């Protein structure tokens, strides 16, 4: 029995040729789709290795790659549907593009569409990119790990994964510590009593900051010529119970700045204790009246 005779056989009134042809076409569609997806991923990886484009950076490439892959799967699925008897119109409508918007309106919620559009604004507006250290509304701080079609993934300083919808990020106040220069100024603020020697307290704070290994000399050439101090220390507030003194300390990045601030608060407190400079704290007087029984 040759192949033609085998294909002409019928089982329960159905020719073997029909399901075999369907399976062969479905397999070809699958292989072609997977091949196209692999090719798209390869081209994006290659473009990242060979080109340093400001437009097609890592963030943009990752986002466009996802859209391209999803589009290929939709096209492959539409072609597969067109092979099924009775589903030809559905497959053809998707291929023609008329069914894509109908499917989006019918099955995607307004929130999902909003996240998708917000993702486009993030990718092409570039308020941040993958690898940037950002702070959102003074609540979430971390490094951008991934930007998907619906949400942004942030690795926090505690190495926790934070997943935030793109629409929420698009309406948040974003502080990007990586967008320009990475060096950052840390405010070291300590309150001293009104009886304290301010010049002495300010000198101690400057000395402690100068001793820290993470301190960076951020002075300009002009400031260096004028012998401006590396660390600026000023009185910034006369409070109800304390005078607040601030030292401006620069570090290479936000991580070093945070660690430096923690170290300096400890060392300044210990130095103030040795130098008898009081750091006031609020306290309450409790008055108990004895009730005289008549």
Can you describe this structure?
The chain has 294 residues and is α+β, with helices and mostly antiparallel strands. The protein has three domains: 95 residues, no CATH class; 50 residues, Roll (SH3 type barrels), CATH 2.30.30.60; 91 residues, 2-Layer Sandwich (Alpha-Beta Plaits), CATH 3.30.70.100. Helix content is 50%, strand content 19%. The protein has ten helices and ten strands. A five-stranded antiparallel beta sheet has the order 6-5-4-3-7. A three-stranded antiparallel beta sheet has the order 8-10-9, covered by helices on one side. Strands 1-2 form a two-stranded antiparallel sheet. β4 and β5 form a beta hairpin. α2 runs antiparallel to α3, α3 runs antiparallel to α4 and α8 packs across α10. The chain starts with a helix and ends in a 20-residue tail after the last helix. The mean pLDDT is 79. This is Small-conductance mechanosensitive channel. Pfam families: MS_channel_2nd, MS_channel_3rd. GO terms for molecular function: mechanosensitive monoatomic ion channel activity. One of its GO terms (cellular component) is plasma membrane. It comes from bioreactor metagenome.
Structure keywords:
294 residues, Alpha-Beta Plaits, five-stranded antiparallel β-sheet, three-stranded antiparallel β-sheet, 10 helices
> Which segments are poorly predicted (pLDDT under 50) over 5 or more consecutive residues?
none
Shape: elongated
Mean pLDDT: 79
* Proportion of strand residues: 15-25%
Question: Separation of termini?
Answer: 123 Å
| Rg value | 33 Å
When the domains are counted, the total is: 3
Largest sheet: 5 strands, antiparallel
Biggest β-sheet: strands ordered side by side in the sheet? 6-5-4-3-7
Order of helices and strands: HEEHHHHHEEEEHEEHHEEH
The overall strand count is 10
Q: Number of helical segments?
A: 10
Helix content class = 40-55%
